[in-house]
Design brief:
By secondary structure, the protein is an alpha/beta fold. It has a single domain, classed as Class I glutamine amidotransferase (GATase) domain (Rossmann fold, 3-Layer(aba) Sandwich). The protein is about 35% helix and about 25% strand. It is built from eight helices and eleven strands. The strands form two sheets. A nine-stranded mixed β-sheet has the order 2-1-3-4-11-10-9-6-7, with helices on both faces. Strands 5-8 form a two-stranded antiparallel ribbon. It is globular. Pfam families: GATase (PF00117).
Length: about 240
């Protein structure tokens, strides 16, 4: 079985990063190519107003990260909320990462807001709280690269918390077999994270920046999370 995934890009990379990293869609395609299950991808940048044709059908829709706030009032965010609610009501599978993780929580009755913990950057570790059949290869913890100052502070009704940390209590959740979301960025590489940290050093502040740079010595399990996502879509 080959899973067809629609990637809804909710950002355009900073100009200094585009030449090397292209786009979030490109980064996700490179990520999924490193896991063993079959998948094909079609990317649409919703910031620019691009969406699939109504006749197109996918096995899942993935909402990427973004420098925008999930609770923002931009016109494109409002249009995306309407589109995702229609997809949810249609029974489609939805995958959310960072901004997408927060937007899906908001859309379905939870809360996302600026976190009192401040910026999370670099490699963070999460505890797995629920072992699901599609979470193969299984593990009790996993590391992901992160870059966020917003968090989901209340899960939607009926959501099951899958992973947590002291810094980010609602780090991953699912809603039935339809919605699966992660705060961390499985598509990030250490190189991209380092370049982003260097680019935003002043905005992060020296303490956060240095801690983020030091954390890059740790491995991260983005490819494993990508396999979980594909298995979730196949379940």
């Amino acid at each position: 079985m080959t899973v067809r995934i629609c990637i809804l890009e909710t950002d355009i990379l900073r100009p200094q990063l585009i030449e090397q990293y292209k786009s979030y869609g490109t980064m996700f395609q490179q990520l999924f190519s490193r896991q063993p299950l079959g998948a094909t991808f079609h990317c649409f940048n919703v910031v620019q107003g691009h969406y699939p044709d109504d006749s197109e059908r996918f096995d899942a829709y993935l909402i990427t990260g973004s420098k925008a706030d999930s609770f923002g009032q931009d016109d494109w965010i409002g249009k995306l909320r309407t589109y995702l609610l229609a997809r949810y009501q249609n029974g489609d599978k939805l995958l959310g990462v960072c901004f997408g993780h927060q937007l899906m929580a908001l859309l379905l009755g939870g809360k996302a807001e600026r976190a009192s913990q401040g910026w999370g950057v670099g490699v963070h570790q999460y505890r797995v709280l629920s072992q699901e059949p599609w979470m193969q290869p299984a593990s009790e913890t996993f590391n992901l690269l992160v870059s966020h100052q917003d968090q989901v502070t209340q899960l939607p009704e009926g959501a099951q918390l899958l992973a947590s940390s002291d810094f980010c209590p609602n780090a991953a959740y699912r809603i039935g077999g339809q919605v699966l979301c992660f705060q961390g960025h499985p598509e990030f590489t250490h190189e991209y994270s380092r370049d982003l940290l260097n680019l935003r050093r002043e905005a992060f502040g020296e303490t956060v920046y240095q801690a983020g740079i030091e954390s890059l010595a740790k491995e991260q399990q983005g490819a494993q999370i990508a396999e979980w996502m594909i298995r979730f879509c196949m379940a």
